[in-house]
Design a protein that fits this description.
This protein has about 260 residues and is mostly beta strands. The chain has three domains: about 5-60, no CATH class; about 65-220, Immunoglobulin-like; about 225-255, no CATH class. The protein is built from two helices and 18 strands. The strands form five sheets. Strands 4, 6, 8, 9, 11, 14 and 16 form a seven-stranded mixed sheet that branches. Strands 7-10-5-3-15 form a five-stranded mixed sheet, with no helix packed on it.
């Protein structure tokens, strides 16, 4: 029979019989508190849970909570834009360096074409591997590895750029703002960030597959403008003789 547990005031774990699973409570602890409580309770844990202690030990060391997000960019139809992949440490979390990150990203292929991904000065030792998948929604997956972690950052460091995702804007794109969606998972790749010891960071907020998350990016497209010159073809001259028009928009009154 599985024995539920609850945390004691001393930070140790004890068996607590007779309560249903719905009465179990979870509490979130800062990493430093959780790790120290685990160290004090490890021997007691072995007495109560026996073989399950190794599972708890494997989860005891966590990377600092981190904010992983995509940035915004703007450009004209037919141009290229760089979407930054940023990381930041929230207030109250310890300093952290990073050893790897994976991304799953969706974008509108009627507006954007993926071109490339590149590391930055912050991730200069990283190698990036990408794959794209066509369909109603364009999908991009990115995996990375490195022989050494990034430098440490903390809550006072602000955002650092892990990578730049380059997209070309289709030449026939009209003026619009197109979401670049940081997904929770796609095509077997889960968006994640690993600390310097390869422990997984808790992403706050966690990305979802919805296109309305605060960690999603965007591209604002400015449609191309053209100058139309009137040719009266031997008829009565008009004034003005030219008009500026925007692709995808109504011309309005020509003369």
């Amino acid at each position: 029979m599985q024995v539920p547990w609850k945390p004691l005031s001393s930070g140790l774990f004890s068996a607590h019989r007779g309560r249903s699973p719905k009465h179990r409570r979870r509490r979130t602890l800062p990493r430093s508190v959780f790790n120290s409580q685990f160290a004090r309770s490890h021997d007691d844990c072995r007495q109560v849970f026996a073989t399950s202690c190794e599972t708890l030990e494997a989860r005891a060391v966590l990377a600092a909570n981190s904010i992983l997000a995509l940035g915004a960019a703007s450009g004209p139809a037919g141009g290229t834009v760089d979407i930054p992949v940023t990381v930041a440490i929230p207030a109250g979390e310890p300093a952290e360096a990073f050893s790897a990150f994976n991304l799953a990203v969706a974008y509108d292929p009627a507006v954007l074409d993926f071109v490339s991904a590149a590391p930055t000065d912050f991730t200069s030792g990283f190698s990036l591997s990408t794959a794209t998948f066509s369909g109603a929604a364009g999908l991009l997956t990115l995996t990375s590895f490195t022989s050494g972690p990034t430098s440490q950052i903390d809550a006072t460091s602000g955002s650092r750029v892990l990578a730049k995702l380059t997209f070309s804007i289709r030449s026939d794109a009209i003026a619009t703002t197109s979401v670049v969606n940081l997904l929770a998972t796609a095509k077997g790749v889960t968006t994640k960030l690993l600390g310097s010891d390869a422990s997984e960071a808790i992403l706050t907020p966690a990305p979802t597959n919805a296109a309305t998350d605060s960690v999603d990016g965007s591209v604002t497209v400015t449609a191309n403008s053209y100058t139309v010159t009137y040719d009266v073809n031997g008829g009565i001259a008009v004034s003005p003789t030219t008009k500026s028009v925007t692709f995808g928009s109504a011309y309005g009154t020509l003369v």
